[in-house]
Amino acid sequence: MTTLHLAGDPAADALLARDPFSLLTGMLLDQQVPMEKAFSGPAVIAERMGADHLDPAAVAAYDPEAFAEIFSRTPAVHRFPGSMAGRVQKLAAYVAEHYANDAANLWSDAATGAELLKRLKALPGFGEQKAKIMVALLGKQIGVRPDGWREAAGDYGAEGATRSVADVVDADTLLQVRATKREIKRAAKA
Fold this sequence. Notes:
Elements: H1 10-18, H2 20-29, H3 35-49, H4 56-61, H5 64-72, H6 81-98, H7 105-108, H8 113-121, H9 128-142, H10 149-152, H11 171-189
Helix pairs in contact: 1-2, 1-3, 2-3, 2-6, 5-6, 8-9
């Protein structure tokens, strides 16, 4: 069993490791909030739904107002609970329809890294960078390594990199990733 260290909470990390749609949801939520908050989100959502994992069809079918309320309860799942609740439901509907309700089907038969990247970029809420980071996360931590996955992930796929959530395996690497991000922002401003 894969051990992840993305949420900073053993139960939330265990859910991410065993439930592919929770991992995908955490990646979707990973914007404009700390990484740990984003990747804890799936566990909070599942708990508030009274479930032990996130079933894409169940999430997609959930009443949108009630689902937004799940996101809005204190503490809120995300900084933008209403819009992110809608995005998660769109992602869930897409996975249910196109991948037989199993997010792992997105990557289990991808023949190449380029194909995997293309599939991820087609997901609602996944742009180029988020898709590349997800390819890197799958390759580095989940063992999903179709031919060319590192190239498809771009700089995020580099061995020894400390650029993204894909590189966080403990508290030390989290600090290294944060330092790299600060340096990249500083260099961009200069």
